[in-house]
């Protein structure tokens, strides 16, 4: 099979501010989310990107101007404040308006974690999110400032993962049908917000029931009905997902990961991980490292 077609037209006429270019390291292809570049761009009026079976995922915030996305035979218009989310492996074309060229902030990524998050939060069907809001814009700029910070490469990668996760979680939360029929989704959002704000936090069903003004039994029943697992089990699985991300995407020690995720000691964390994955954290990390 030939290499996927990746075309960008007249890029040399655009005004780049490239805040981050990842060094070429052997382990990058094994990371669940690897940031290749982060930038700010005032696009030329002829700016156009076409990717067939794209080999990267892109996350874009439109600061000003206008443009459009063509994908699956559908044309979607974009303007200031909109977000564009495109996972790797799909075919699309996006371009700026000749009359109102874009200025955009963008993250280019590889790895399966970004497409997984889009699927998990039901965002695959919404490549364009209009009027994403100030919280999302702040998160994009937070990523830019992080890339300017001069921190070690792996630390930048780790924190960019958290920023992108927060962006997607915020966009998903904006789409939730709040109200009685969305109670299970509200609880899921509370759990995700809890972990996003503080990965070491613990989960209290009693506190969640108070926030949502519902009995614990009824809340758990609704959650089981919606997701086929208990709220606490969902909380555990989200912690497990973060643990795997840290093991594969950082060089934090097992003790540091255990502490960051709120486990009382690394032995308890290792036992939990091995029970879930059938292998120890150390063995899991070694299996994902370059040979």
Please give a handful of descriptors for the protein shown:
Arc Repressor Mutant, subunit A, 44% helix, single chain, 291 residues, 2 domains
Question: Can you characterise this structure?
Answer:
- With 291 residues, the chain is an alpha+beta fold.
- The chain has two domains: 6-152, Jelly Rolls (Sandwich), CATH 2.60.120; 180-288, Arc Repressor Mutant, subunit A (Orthogonal Bundle).
- It is built from ten helices and eleven strands.
Low-confidence stretches: 1-13, 177-181
Strand runs, count: 11
What is the annotated CATH architecture of the largest domain?
Answer: Sandwich
Q: How many separate helices?
A: 10
Q: Give me the Rg, rounded.
A: 20 Å
Assigned CATH superfamily of the largest domain: Jelly Rolls
Which whole number gives the mean pLDDT? 83
- Number of structurally distinct domains: 2
N- and C-termini, Cα separation: 26 Å
The class by helix and strand makeup works out as alpha+beta
CATH topology of the largest domain: Jelly Rolls
Name the shape in a single word. globular
Helical content class: 40-55%
Strand order, largest beta sheet: 2-3-10-5-8-11
Residues in β-strands, percent: 15-25%
Order of helices and strands: EEEEEEEEEEHEHHHHHHHHH
Report the CATH C-level class of the largest domain.
Mainly Beta
Give a nutshell description of this structure.
The protein has 291 residues and is of the alpha+beta class. Helix content is 44%, strand content 22%. It folds into 2 domains: 147 residues, Jelly Rolls (Sandwich), CATH 2.60.120; 109 residues, Homeodomain-like (Arc Repressor Mutant, subunit A), CATH 1.10.10.
